[in-house]
TrEMBL record:
Residues 1-18 form the signal peptide. This is Calreticulin. Keywords: Calcium, Chaperone, Disulfide bond, Endoplasmic reticulum, Lectin, Metal-binding, Repeat, Signal, Zinc. Residues 204-251, 351-376 have a biased composition (Basic and acidic residues). GO terms for cellular component: endoplasmic reticulum lumen; endoplasmic reticulum membrane. Residues 197-255, 349-412 are annotated as: Disordered. An alpha-D-glucoside binds at Y109, K111, Y128, D135, D317. Pfam families: Calreticulin (PF00262).
């Protein structure tokens, strides 16, 4: 009984410490402009985000987010919040992305910074802590970026995580655990997970090839060898091509004009190719030599790969060729279950309505296209009918002319 009570108390303490560290749903109209700062970094032509639910949505208000409205533009926008550390706690980063323009090339990711970021000068080389989210460019790049900064270097995940590439809203979630594990979710479903040490190259390898070891000179790693007793047959050597024996000199061939006639060449049916002795088992074969491994003296374990001591800013720093992406439902928390709940309450609440509205629009466009095609066919049929009537009129005129040209019987 006391044990059960202790578990309940510990759970209550854990829940009490669970915290939403940053959240942005853009539900208060244009007030977002007072919280987010536009980059003014020199040398780049920045597009200006607008607040909109887009062309189709699940809820006219709840679906509103920041949209990229101009093609072929850089976008740079960020917001700061109370700094925190994820020491001994999960770090959950979550947001939704909607590529309603059917994006062909552009970023859909966010960046997390510490407090040192100069927001008005944010650009592609500004140091960040984490970069996370979808990136699409042509058919070859459709991936979820998960990049961590570690000791001043950016490290991309070694696994390929495919992102969603349709026109609907999708929820992206990154979970970084204090045991140096991680999980990536799309639409509240796990798509990848593993170890930070295994799936990034933060650290040198644990083992290296023994620099003192080398393959012995007498090590024979040939499984088979040419048979020393095998000899090439005497009739083996034959030309690959021969003159066509059935060819004859054309009758109109002029040696003085055309040169000396030579029959065309054909494949020689007797040609056997390059001769090689047959292979036999190598009695001295010792197997493939494997270089022995030793501990890497440069390797040092790091139990704090997950740790970000000062998280302070979220930014959208990206380039888009074809604009129209909408970002919404930003959340940073240390509570994994809370993130799932918020995802269901935001993205989950509008996704079906969004698809229903898009399907309705597509059906209307289909009907309109059919009506326009029918109208075009009717116009073409009418034009053909008018042309036929004009031809009949011309025929009547010709007949009248003929009648007028005939002599009167009385005159005859």
């Amino acid at each position: 009984m006391k044990g059960a009570l202790l578990v309940v108390c510990l759970l209550a303490v854990s829940l009490a410490h669970a915290k939403v560290l940053f959240q942005e749903r853009f539900t208060d109209g244009d007030s977002w402009e007072s919280r987010w700062v536009q980059s003014e970094h020199s040398g780049k032509e920045f597009g200006k985000f607008v607040l909109t639910a887009g062309k189709f949505y699940g809820d006219a208000e709840d679906s509103k987010g920041l949209q990229t409205p101009q093609d072929a533009r850089f976008y740079g926008l960020s917001t700061k919040f109370e700094p925190f550390s994820n020491e001994d706690k999960p770090l959950v980063i979550q947001f939704s992305v909607k590529h309603e323009q059917n994006i062909d090339c552009g970023g859909g990711y966010l960046k997390v910074f510490d407090c040192s970021l100069d927001q008005k000068d944010m650009h592609g080389d500004s140091p960040y802590l984490i970069m996370f989210g979808p990136d699409i460019c042509g058919p070859g790049t459709k991936r979820v970026h998960v990049i961590f900064s570690y000791k001043g270097q950016n490290h991309l995940i070694k696994k390929e995580i495919r992102c969603k590439d349709d026109v609907y809203s999708h929820l992206y979630t990154l979970i970084v655990n204090p045991d140096n594990t991680y999980e990536v979710k799309i639409d509240n479903e796990k798509v990848e997970s593993g170890s930070l040490e295994d799936d990034w190259d933060f650290l040198p390898t644990k083992e290296i090839k023994d620099p003192e070891a080398s393959k012995p000179e007498d090590w024979d790693d040939r499984a088979t060898i040419p048979d020393p007793d095998d000899a090439k047959p005497e009739d083996w050597e034959q030309p690959e091509h021969i003159a066509d024996p059935d060819a004859t000199k054309p009758e109109d061939w002029d040696d003085e004009m055309d040169g000396e006639w030579e029959p065309p060449m054909i494949d020689n049916p007797e040609y056997k190719g390059e001769w090689k002795p047959k292979q036999i088992d190598n009695t001295d074969y010792k197997g493939a030599w494997i270089h022995p491994m030793v501990a890497n003296p440069e390797y040092a374990a790091d139990d704090a790969l997950y740790l970000r001591t000062e998280v302070c800013t979220v930014g959208l720093d990206l380039w888009q060729v074809k604009s129209g992406t909408i970002f919404d439902n930003f959340l940073i928390t240390d509570d994994i279950e809370e993130a799932k709940k918020v995802g269901d309450e935001t993205w989950g609440a509008i996704k079906d309505g969004e698809k229903k509205m898009k399907d309705g629009q597509d059906e209307e466009e289909r009907k309109k296209a059919e009506e326009e095609a029918k109208a075009a066919d009717d116009d073409e049929d009418k034009d053909d009918l008018d042309d036929n009537e004009d031809d009949d009129d011309d025929l009547d005129l010709d007949m009248n002319d003929l009648d007028e040209s005939e002599p009167d019987h009385d005159e005859l």
